[in-house]
Amino acid sequence: MGQWRYGVILDAGSSGTRVHIYRWLNSDTARAQASDAQLQKLPAIESDSKWTKKIHPGISTFGDSPHSVGPDHLDELLSHALKYVPLDQVPHTPLFLLATAGMRILPPDQRKAVLDEVCSFARRTTKFQLPDCDLHVQVIPGETEGLYGWIAANYLLGGFDNTSEHDHGKGHHTYGFLDMGGASAQIAFAPNATEAEKHANDLTLLRLRAVSGAPLEHRVFVTTWLGFGVNQARHRYVDALVASSPGTLELPDPCLPAGLKITTDGKPIKPGSQEAKGKEPYLLGTGKFSECMHQTYPLLEKDKECLDAPCLLNGQHVPAIDFDVNHFVGVSEYWHTTHQIFEMGHKDKAYDFKTYQQRVNEFCSKSWEKIEKGVAKKKWGKKVDETTALEVCFKASWLINVLHDGIGVPRVGIEELHGGQNTTKDIIHNAKEKGFLDPFQAVNKIGGTELSWTLGKMVLYASSEVPPPSTEALAVGFGANEAGIPGDFQYPGGSPFISGENSDWHDRLFSNNSRRLPGFFIFVLILVVIAYLYCGRDRRKNAFQKVLQLFGRGSGSRHGLRKRRGFAGKLFGIRSTPSYERVLEDGEAADDFELGSLDSASDIDHSDSSEESRVGRTSGWATPQIKAGHADPSTPQLFDPDRDIISQGVGLGFSNPIKRDGLISRTDSRERMAGGKWSRASSPSRHRGHLGALKESFD
């Protein structure tokens, strides 16, 4: 293994999929090079803008044609990753495809088909590390997405270390995280001490590990609002417009620039379309932003019943947010909608509600004709096209409502903050210099690194690779806010093992360290056991005979040979006496002995191929049973008293509960065999000389 470790994450969102490549020093190298201060920090994750690539649309669009997701979508992304991950590191590089809200709303059968095909295609076409498809290729809950984002934000801002430089008051030094995509929105923050104690059961325990191996624990509240992303909110808004005016073809929309006409799906009206013919309703922009704000407010659904107070929007429980110490950063739509048009050229400018609303009003009151001309002249930048321009007024109104009426972020520039501070006349143009201490700040990159939840996932994974200081150290991951390892604890790599010894086991096995020889012998022993199980009984018997010939020469001791057989015969399947078929006597005892029925359903439920279980079971041979009424009361209770089937066991060791007089004794069998006949009339004759030789071997 080289000094660098790599990781690849595919962020499968609702509108597209983006590949992210990260790298970090392996634990041994990082510790050797780290200063005392760096040892107390999390592993340093590196990325590069050219390592990232996004394509459209999202994988959720392949629900009806899952087999196309590989060649038509993933191939381009995986090829991009293979350009930057060194070839010799690919087998050691974990690959994750983590899907978010777009896939959450897909029907379960389509969702499973798409994910199965993603894993199958990646395994067929690359050598990336994909040991567990259920872990590496999955739809993650919104809460998990929010937690990863919280990790990324605090990792980049320094909330996990340098606590004295990030003192927000009341012993608080971490930042809150807000994310809004097309289909969902998330919030994650560490409540103040009072709220954390009051709502302890609502918090998530997060455990990380510094380069030194020291544990870092945090308790975070995370929740998600599915259907509250900008695209889903827009769909709900348009549905409400249509429902409020049944039969009306032209629907006035204050959230669109004046004079713009589009379909209810947000597309331009084409000549000859149903909308152009007056057969389907369409939207007509009126450019009244204040009215747009008023009409989008009900989408917050703040009137829903709150079953577990306090609640924010949609009646969902959220501990009270103390904005004196909880300072939030917002990504995705929070950044694009506040900066892509209205803050162009002011990338680091702190969010100011009053200034922002003024700029939105100015833009959205323009006629669509003027906006089209401005877009053509790149007035708002190269990335602003007509689609962006026609959507931004609704997005801005939705963002403002969610932030201030939904979450309760103070309106900087209008509402007074703690201590009577008002920043109306003191807008901070450089949020970094202020230390991100405003109640809310939209960001995209911090220190040149994009703030993405995928970074948080990789920080957690890299942290799990750091060896702990002792065997008693608790694993890295997250779960319920309980002591120790809670039942729902999730490991970054799907295993409680330390990936430093887990992922590089083959290198460490033969490397120059103190455990090389024991590891080598264990490895050889595993190979021997596999070979032993695979070769079958006859081959084991032949091998044993050869071993006896090799080590038994010159001993001249038949007794010694029998001793050696007794020692290893069981291992190789050799009995100390010749094996022969046991035959039952005619009569009552024979009638008592029969084979039990085979419960095939039970075996299938626990077979290796079962998706529900990976624990092996017996091969399914029928087990002998004794008919009720003939059991000996003195027999050890290996039977179920309510059934007449022997309890199935795994392995060897219990004595035969069947009475000996039901089977032929060895003496009887020898006498009958000496007579040249088997006891049953239907049994074949045996040559007397052959049986005589067999009798001699018994002696």
UniProtKB/TrEMBL annotation:
Domain of life of the native organism: Eukaryota
Binding site for ATP: G182, A183, S184, A185, Q186
Gene Ontology CC: Golgi apparatus; membrane
Residue spans crossing the bilayer: 517-535
Keywords assigned: ATP-binding, Hydrolase, Membrane, Nucleotide-binding, Transmembrane, Transmembrane helix
GO terms classed as biological process: CTP metabolic process; UDP catabolic process
Keyword Membrane in record: yes
Gene3D superfamilies: 3.30.420.40, Exopolyphosphatase. Domain 2 (3.30.420.150)
Molecular function terms, GO-annotated: ATP binding; GDP phosphatase activity; ribonucleoside triphosphate phosphatase activity; UDP phosphatase activity
InterPro entries, sorted: GDA1_CD39_NTPase (IPR000407)
Residues annotated as catalytic: E145 (proton acceptor)
UniProt similarity note: Belongs to the GDA1/CD39 NTPase family.
Protein name, as recorded: Nucleoside diphosphatase
